[in-house]
Amino acid sequence: MLPLDKLPAPPGGAPLALLKGITVLDLTTSIAGPYATMLLGDMGAEVIKIERPGKGDDCRAWGPPFLDGESLWFLSVNRNKQSVALDYSKDAGRAVLHDLVRRCDVVIVNLTDRVQKKLGVDHAALSALRADIVHVSLSGFGLKGARKDFPCYDLIAEGYSSVMDLTGEADSPPQKIGTPAADLIAGMDAAYATLAALFDRQRSGKGHKIDIAMIDSMTRFMSPRIVPYLGSGIAPHRTGARDSVISVYQTFDTKDRPITLGLGNDGIFKRFWQAVGQPAVSDDPRYATNAQRCAVRMEIVEKIQAVLRTQTREHWLKIFVEHNVPAGPVNSADEVASDPELIARGLFFTAMHNDRRIPQVGLGIAVDDSNASYRSPPPRLGQHNDAVLGGWLGYDAAKIAQLKSSKAIEQE
Description:
Elements lengths: L22 E4 L5 H11 L3 E6 L14 E2 L2 E2 H5 L5 E5 L4 H13 L2 E4 L3 H7 L3 H5 L6 E6 L14 H8 L19 H24 L3 E6 H8 L1 H10 L15 E5 L6 E5 L2 H10 L14 H6 L1 H12 L4 H10 L4 E3 L3 H5 L2 H5 L3 E6 L2 E6 L23 H8 L4 H9 L3 E2 L2
Parallel strand pairs: 1-2, 1-6, 2-5, 6-7, 7-8
Antiparallel strand pairs: 3-4, 5-14, 9-10, 10-11, 12-13
Helix pairs in contact: 1-7, 6-8, 7-8
């Protein structure tokens, strides 16, 4: 039995349809771009995913782990899409791509400026086919500047942004975040900017050229650490997340397992000491304000640690809920995936399609009390060639057969 076997079906009700009628042409690969288009698909957009014949999205090969021969990383960011395996480096394939662009509202690419122009999928080329197209470029370093043609992955962006330098214990090497944060943040930026561009297009009738750089997105993510440096001259350093502007805001050991604890204001600080049975501690005049507590942080942290080690995690978390003190467990991935509250909120589910059972993490956004976003599973490579070319573009059987014989399109 796999963990997915314990998950419920997708949330019921009609899937979200806020973007119904919007068609997105997804020319991206890996994580950032596919994540952006999945977010748009979850909101009701029709997403046509263009993949290289034979290999498809790079992410299809990322593993192990695999599920029935499919990359679970790929399955995590590609639901609600139709796959067309199209070689648009060939004349015949490029003609198909142009027909698709003329019918689409949004095109998203994750190629460098040089490669976009080489393949004819840059803004200038595609806006000539449809003037009001929303063209979204999602690359490592953006469309301008000395680095615009540098290759990039999430790892590279994390290093550039300083997040790796600030992640980990003080005496440990820099650490990558445990999820592809730059990919996901840049993907969210792309989806957010796309929505804003579509909203303006509805008013103005004009298309837009959007330039998303993973480095920019990840660096903006670091604003709460960079702005204090700019205004103080004090550069932050790796501390194991123990240097917060909040005096007590870190993990602590208990008798068995660690917890997180955030005492973000004077009232919470008092409630904490009441909860642990030592109310007199909060009356110390040296602990009166957050700034004063920061000055003696280590002293306070040692007092708290001594108290928390006397009882189990479960004991303290129950008490802190009763006293309205912000605290929580340090969960592992398997604990998160089996969290009954998250499952009840529809965040984890498994979808059945043609004997395929695929685990998914839901959108996590409710609209009008509905969080139903699942419409179709991540597609097989080229699964929708005929449906898109025949049903959507209106190509007849002879033309589709010709494209197949020329290897401009393929199906797995």
